[in-house]
Amino acid sequence: MPAPAWTRSSVDETVEAVNALTARWAAEAMGGAGCPAGGTVFSAAGVWPLLAFLADAASGPARAELADAVGIPAEQAAGRAREFLTALGGLRGVDAALGLWTRRQLKVREEWAARLPPHTHRKLTGWRAVDRRALDAWAAEHSNGRITRMPADLSGDTQLLLASALALATRWIRPFTAECAVPYSGPWDGRRLAGLSRTTSLLDRVGVADTSAGHVTGLRVVGDRGIDVHLLLGEPDVPAGRVLAAGVDVLAGRRTLIPGDRLPPGEAGPGLTVEAVRNFYPVRPKLHVRTVAFDVAADHDLTAHADVFGLGSATGRSAGHFPGMTDKEVAVARARQSATAAFTDRGFEAAVVTAFEMGEGSARMPEPTYVNTEVHASFHRPFGFLAVHRVSRLVLAAGWVTDPQPYREAAAWQAQRNGEDFPQVRKRK
User: What is the DSSP string of 330-349?
Assistant: First the structure.
C-alpha cells in the first residue's frame, strides 16, 4: 500500500517542531564552545519521533517536559510521530525505520505498542553478544551500511530499547568539478583540500540574510530527489550553533535571504563578493561556486543536553515515568545518536541511528491504608508564648524568650527532686 501523501496542511506544525528542536540542539551543543575539531553532524529528525513516543507513554513532570521538547501536546504526540515516520519513508531518497526491543519478561502496554508503526516490536534474547549482532545488523540495514553499530550499551539494566534510523541520498542536478583547493587565509590557510567548483547562471541559488548571528551567506545545492543541501557561512568567530540556528530561521521565513541577483556590488556577505563586469555583448549572469568535499561522523550523548530534549525528569531513577509503556517502572538510562554525512562532487549522503535505552526505575510504593501523623517540634532559638483563657480565648500573658535559664539551675532542680531545697524564684528588682 503506498504511503499517504505528506500534505502541507497535515505536517506544517510537525515540521516546525522538528526544526525548532534542530535549532535548540545546535545552539545548545555548539553555541558557545563551537563544534568539535573534526566537525559534527546530527539529526533532530532522528530524535523527534522517539521523544514523541516517549511523551505519549509518560506521566507527571516527564510527560510535560517531553511534550515541551517535542512541541506537540503529549496526547497527540504518538499519532504525529507515526505520521512523521510514514511520511519520511514515502519521500524519494529517504529511508526511515523504527525499532522496539524488550526483554522477554517485560510486558509492553498493548495500547501504546499499537500506536507504533507495524512490525516494530522484537524481543531481546538476554544474550548480549546475540542481541548486539542483531541490533548492529538492523542499524546497518536501515542506514545503507553507513552505520554498523547500534549506539547502545545493552548493559544489564536495559529493559527496553527504542531506536530510529534515517538514511538519505541525493544526487546533484548539476555535478561539481573536483579540483585541488588551497585556501590562503583562515584556519585552513595553506592546506591542500578536496575542492569542488561549478558555475551557473542562477544567481538566486545564493543569498545573504541579516540574522541574530550576524550576516549569513546561504547557498542552495539542488538535488535530484527533492532534497537540497543548504551551505551556510557566518561571520568570523560566530559560534557554529548560532549560524545553524540562523539557517533554520531563514528556512522558516523568520529571516529574509536577499538573493544574489539583488545584492549590491562589493563584499555582499561572508565569503560572497558581487562584481559588475562590463562586456561588449550580452552575456548571461554567472554564479561561480567553490567549496570543499567533506565526510564527517559524530556520536552524541543526548543526556548531556537533557533539557533540550525534555529528558530532565525522564532520566531520574527515583521513580518510573512511563506507566503507559510497560507494566514495570522504567526510566531513560541512555540516549545516543550516531550520524554520518558525505558531500561530494556528485551528491550528498547521510545516515543517522538514534537509540533510547530504558532501565528500571524505582517502583512506586503502595498507598498506605492508615495515616499516622508525626510532628517534630524544636524550640532551640528565641520563641514567644501566650497564656490564654480557654473558654474566652483571652490572652492572659504573652512573652518572648531570649535568655533561657542556664544549666546550673537545671542541676538545682534535679537536686530538689532528690530531696534538697527548691531554688528561689528570681525576683524582679
Answer: EEEEEEEEEEEEEE-SSEEE
